[in-house]
Every structure is written in structure tokens, then in C-alpha cells.
Amino acid sequence: MSQPLKDAVGICKTIMRNGFDAYVINARLQEKILETGKEREVDICCDADFEDLSKLFPLLEPIGAPNLVGTLKEGDVLIRIYPADTEEGSYPESSLARFTPGMLKALEQTDGGLPLELACPYMPRSVELYDGFADIGEGLIRFQGLPDETLKQNYLRAVRALRFAANFQLPIEPNSWMAIVRSARRVLDYVSISDIMDEWRKVEAENMWFFVKLLYDSTILHGLIPEVAALSRVKQVKNPEEGEELVLDHTLELMRRYPEELPYDWYGAMACLFHDVGKLYAAEYFAGQWTFYHHHRIGAKVTRKILMRLRFLPEDIDMICHLVRHHMRFHFMLTDRGIRRFVALNDYPRLIEITRADIKARNGSYKEFNHNMKMLERAAIPEEALEPLLNGHEIMEFAEIKPGPAVGLIREALLQAQIAGDVTSVPEAVEFVRSYGQREKLH
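-> C-alpha cells emitted (443 positions)
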């Protein structure tokens, strides 16, 4: 090993003893370059920044270049220090820097004397939000440089591109899109679930339907949440007039409609994504049509498994599964008792909006929905005030009247007296009915 490389290795060891990673970049290639005798320069790589390195090497010189930490003079050898790749989602084989501008310059001066296979066209970069992306002001989402090579540096950029496209409502440039599709499997291999969900949480509730659609179209969803992707193969009747639809199409449309009445509700939109996932397991074809009995109960259990896999917090899992479990409750025409049980549920306003969005997505009937909305007004009335304290037979007995319209009139009058607080007990109700009956007899 030449002396310049030994000096560079010594600097790397000093850096490593202080808790950082460091290595000589492509030592084999640099050894060949040093053999030419034209340059006395060595490139190293580390994950320490200039401030940390300057404490170890006071003579470290700052450099304005974005991909160079600084330079250090060791005798007659110039040591250039580059930033190491610290992205968890980068392509493993490309995580090691193997090529620098200095090496490129040296290769150009050797007249082809050095083998190009010693180099690798990858240089680590500093981490920024839009790192790897062209200016979004162009009106589309596009990776810089060669899309496939840019994705290799950090496969999380694929999910980030989908997030940008959804939130900014911009198309993805065709070559960048194909790079995402080609890399779908690698995204799931190299990017952690936590990092993917961090990106997902930055998607606005109003745009989540589009983000999920992009995940599906790119086939990332097939590996991330196969239970939802499989809904593209499950059919159901949209409404009697419009015939069949795919459950996934209905799910996306419901997610699009949900924020119209309840905006900014990220968790509500997530519940919409899973509201019909149970239909994959409950589907049964019988008598010429598909049925999905108890899909809401099954779906809540499947959703819990999925959300645990996606590393949601326990309290968030409970809330979303609760919404999936009860999302069918408001679809049926509820009685007084039924509406009271409904409003006793946690997050019942969200359940109402899921039902409203479901009807919009199906272009369905509002008959049951409107009935239940009117019944909500009665839910504030005490339960004992919704039924008279005396039934019809008791009213006829105490009022001493025969069956007829008068029974209904007395019953309604008794109920109104209860609501007004004038009658609060059975004895008071008996006295009320007797006096009312006497007035009826006088007339």
C-alpha cells in the first residue's frame, strides 16, 4: 500500500475511533491512480459533518461544493472527504461510494490506461425533502437524471413521488413512473414500513384516495396491503340501476367523497380504505348474486391485523377498527331504541359521514339515511318521554272509554305532558288520563 493511502487509512481510523464510519473510496482504483505519479490526492468517505470533523482535524478546510465535506492536507497528500450514504432505503449495492469527480479527472488523464470497471457511477448526496426530484414548478413529478439510478440511491423516493403527485395533483413523468413500477418490489424490500407510513401520514385526507390509487397502479399496494389490492377482483352491485362494480373502485370513490363533509380527517379516510376489506373473505355467490354477510365484523378483524403490520399505534388501531366494525349501522332504518344505541357509539359523526359517502359513491337512495337523520333529533329526548307511561288498554280502563280515536288522542296528550314534565310518574299518568277522559265525556 502506498504512503498516501496509508495516511488516508490513518485518518479513517481516527474518525472511526470517535464514533463515526469512514473508509477509503475505491482503494483499488485510487492505488492505480497514485501509481501514475501525477496526483497526490486520496478521497475518503464518512458520515460525520464538517463541525464534528473540524474538532478532530483543526486544519480541515471547508469546501463550497454540496457533495464535499472538506479537504485536509497531510504532508504533500491532499485528502478529500465526502459524505457517506445514510439513507435506510437506498439500494444496498450502491450504498458504498466508489467514484468521485477527482477519480473521473484522473481517468481522463490516463488515456484509457485504467479499467472503467473499477468505478461505479454513484455519489452519495446530502438529504433534502426534494432531493432527487426535478423542480416541481415544471408541472409534473420527475426524478433528476436517470430515474432508475436516482431510485437506487433511495427507494423511499418512489413513495415520496406518489405523495407529491397526490398532494399537488400533478402527473408523474412517464419515465419516472416506469422506474417506480419497475422498482415496486425493491421498494418493499429495502424501505422500512415505518418510513413508508411516515410518507403516507403526510398525504392529505382529501387526496388519500388518489395516493392509494397510485399505490395500486404502481403495484406497491399489492405487496404492502394485498388484502386491499385483491378487492380489485371482487364484484358487487353498485345499485339496481347501474349494475356491478369492483369493490376497490367503490372504496376509492368513497374515500374521495368522505372529506366533502368532514375534511382533514386522516383517520376517517383511512377507515374508509378498510371499510369493505372484509368482503374479500365474506364473498359468497348464491342465487345469481354476490352476498357479503357480516363483512363489517370480519373486516374489523382483518383491519386490525393489517394495521398492526403497518405499525399503527394501539389506540389508532382500536379507533379505525371500531369505525370499520360499525360502518353499516347507519345504513338501516333505525328505531328510537336503535338511534340511541347508535349515538352511544364512539365517533358516531364519522360513522354518519362514512354512510353518506357510501351513498354518494353508489349513487344510491337516501331514504334510510334521511329517516335516521330525523331520528337523531329524538335521541336528545329522554327515553322515558318517548313512550307513554300507560298503554292503550290502561288508557281505556282508567279513562273509562271504548276503543276508538279518543284512545289515540289521549295517548298523544299523555306523551306531550311527559315531555313537558307535567307528568313524571304512573300515578300522575293515571290521574291525567282520568281527568282527560272526563273532559271527553263532557264533550
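Confidence is low (pLDDT under 50) at residues 114-126.
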